[in-house]
Write a structure and sequence with these properties.
Blueprint (H helix, E strand, L loop, with lengths): L10 H6 L24 H4 L30 E10 L10 E5 L10 E4 L5 E7 L4 E6 L7 E9 L8 E10 H10 L9 E8 L9 E6 L10 E6 L2 E3 L10 E7 L2 E10 L4 E11 L3 E4 L2 E2 L18
Parallel strand pairs: 1-7, 6-15, 8-15, 8-16
Antiparallel strand pairs: 1-4, 2-3, 2-5, 5-6, 6-7, 8-12, 9-13, 10-11, 10-12, 13-14
Length: about 300
């Protein structure tokens, strides 16, 4: 299962060096700083460099057909560990909610607490997208609610799998906006992810655009990219690590698109659909040829019986 690749442990030393934010950024994303100025598509998608990555799986017309093979949705038991996203250390006694239908707007299908080593287990259907949330009690003031959706476990005849469930600390959640000279508005969310090509390799020179079903753009949205594994206000699009982040995304249903310059025109290579909860961090990737963010492993695309 793909997760965001960068380690936020690298960010803390950079914060100590200081950073200067921009209210109007002509290179590394957009943050107008003026609620009276309506944001436009061109504010976010204006890349001129031809993208670097394999786009041969997508013809620019029809999204990739991901038909699950017969017998591939049998139950799989997942043994996992809730791990701090920055320190890569277990989060003891954290709680986990699981949505077997991938819809975090509904009641969770499973809930459990991990042990003192951050370990726990769950049983879900293979080759079926799920969503999860990790959290700790509010009074601990340790973590923010962290979500991942569209997660798919491949089919395995043993019926077992392992995973790491991400947890973002309060300190880390403030680190990305601080490093970029931005303010994280209360009640909104931060999204972080990777842009992937047909080989599940990061795409260079991709840009991210976020809107709702009616085409509305979040009023205070700021999208930023990474350089040398760190968020960078001067990075205009994804570097060779494919990493991106979006700050101040309001609660609701949002479409996150990945755009590139194909050498001739601007082209949308993929998208993910996200439900955003207030005061949370959402981790989601975008895959070439996939329009909803659900990427099925190869083991799910052939008969499993």
């Amino acid at each position: 299962m793909r997760t965001v690749l960068f380690s936020l442990a690298l960010i803390a030393p950079a914060v100590l060096l200081g950073c200067t934010g921009k209210t109007t950024d002509d290179t590394g994303g957009t943050d107008t700083g003026d609620t009276n100025t309506a944001l436009t598509f061109e504010d976010f998608v204006n890349v001129t460099d031809t993208y670097v990555g394999d786009g041969t799986c997508y013809d620019g017309v029809a999204w990739i057909d991901q038909t699950v093979g017969a017998g591939c949705t049998s139950d799989v038991t997942v043994s996992g560990t809730v791990s701090d996203f920055q320190q890569d250390e277990p989060v003891p006694e954290a709680s986990v909610n699981i949505w077997s239908n991938d819809d975090i707007n509904t009641a969770a299908d499973q809930s459990f607490d991990v042990d003192s080593n951050g370990a726990g287990t769950m049983t879900v259907s293979a080759c079926t997208p799920i969503g999860y949330e990790t959290y700790t009690p509010v009074e601990w003031e340790e973590t923010v609610n962290t979500y991942e959706v569209h997660q798919v476990y491949g089919w395995d005849p043993s019926g077992a799998d392992t995973d790491t469930w991400n947890s973002v600390s309060v300190a880390t959640s403030k680190l990305i906006p601080s490093l970029l000279g931005l303010e994280w508005s209360p009640g909104t969310a931060i999204i972080a992810g990777t842009a992937y090509d047909c080989n599940e390799e990061p795409i260079q020179h991709a840009q991210v655009f976020i809107h709702d079903a009616d085409g509305n753009i979040p009023a205070d949205l700021a999208v930023r990219y990474f350089a040398n594994k760190l968020p960078n206000s001067d990075q205009p699009d994804t570097n060779d690590d494919g990493l991106w982040s979006a700050v101040n995304v309001p609660p609701g249903e949002w479409i996150v698109e990945m755009w590139v310059n194909n050498g001739t025109d601007l082209e949308m290579l993929g998208a993910t659909h996200l439900t955003i909860m207030p005061d949370s961090v959402v981790i989601s990737n975008i895959y070439t040829g996939i329009d909803d963010g659900v990427y099925l492993p190869a083991s799910c695309l052939q008969a499993c019986e």
